[in-house]
Write the structure tokens for this entry.
Amino acid sequence: MKLFGYRVSRFKEFWRAVKYADMSLWGFLSLATWSLYRLMTYKIRPIAVKGRYRVCLECRAFAENTKTCGFCGCYTPFKARVKKHCAGYYEMEGKWGW
């Protein structure tokens, strides 16, 4: 079963990443609301999402156990779909990231 184009297991991983970040309830609700809004409104081709996620997997700041970005702490499977640029792009002044 898929929700917003993702398997339900991705949402479980997202929840694990939020618990790992020790986020407050208000922070989680605002992040979840923003993420769902972007998932519904931001249109991006699936091939572009896969390409972005591959870049995240190769990044030295990627945390494999929680699948989060080391620069900003975002859950990368969602981040690849809802953000226009990754934090690595800004941190490395356009030399890395997407």
In short: The radius of gyration is 13 Å. Helices lie at 8-21, 25-41, 46-58, 76-82, 87-91.
